[in-house]
Amino acid sequence: MKTGWVKDNDKWYYLDGSADGSMKTGWFQEDNQWYYLDANQGGAMVTGQVTIGGQQESFDENGHWISVNKYVAEAKKYLGVPYVWGGATPSGFDCSGFISYVYKVARQDAAGFYNSAQKISNPQPGDLVFFKNTYKNGISHIGIVVGDGRMIHAGDKGIEYSNLNSSYNQQHFAGYGRLK
After folding, report:
1. Residues of the chain with CATH 2.10.270.10
2. Known catalytic membership, residue 95
3. pTM for the full predicted model
4. Which among 162, 165, 146, 163 is positioned nearest to 154, based on CA atoms?
5. Which of 44, 75, 81, 95 does the annotation list as catalytic?
6. What top-level class would CATH report for the domain 69-178?
């Protein structure tokens, strides 16, 4: 019996090689990549955003699981980098340039990220947090949720941690989002 990936009707499945020819379902790791094979879809590999066990998960177009914590780990590498208006490199970041660099997505301002993000109410580490009316009207600042009531962002002093529950952040809080 064959073991490995097979494609059928534009969906990928993993045959486990057992005598009955069954397909794997659930979480599956191969070559240091995690996949989720959805039993509700006959064992098809998932892509995009899916809820698994009450938790929102992300998978790229190849079915590789994208851990949001990888964004937190990447963001932490730049702690202490100075704030530079319009900056989007490790020599200096502004808030949206920092997000663009860490997530490796096209540059846009905080309002653009807000408009393109999926709005969520239960943020996980690696999700985005948005603020309004900080230096201009509307969505004007963005950070990355790290957990424990904190975010990492390009603040006045550069890339730093801030308390999401500070009076200033609570006053300007606009919501949470996840990049699609």
Report:
1. 3-66
2. yes
3. 0.66
4. 162
5. 95
6. alpha beta
- Is 64 designated active site? no
pLDDT of residue 136: 96
**Would you state the pLDDT for residue 180?**
74
Active site residue 83: no
What kind of fold does domain 3-66 have according to CATH? Answer: left handed beta-beta-3-solenoid (2.10.270)
**Average pLDDT per block of 10 residues along the chain, 180 residues long:** 83 79 82 86 86 74 79 91 98 98 96 96 92 97 92 96 96 94
Q: Which of 151, 153, 174, 176 is catalytic?
A: 153
Contacts of 40 (CB under 8 A, 6+ apart): none
SS3 per residue for 99-151: HHHHHCCCCCCHHHHHHHCEEECCCCCCCEEEEECCCCCCEEEEEEEEECCEE
Residue of 100, 141, 145, 178 marked active site: 141
- How confident is the model at residue 21, as a pLDDT? 67
pLDDT on residue 56: 66
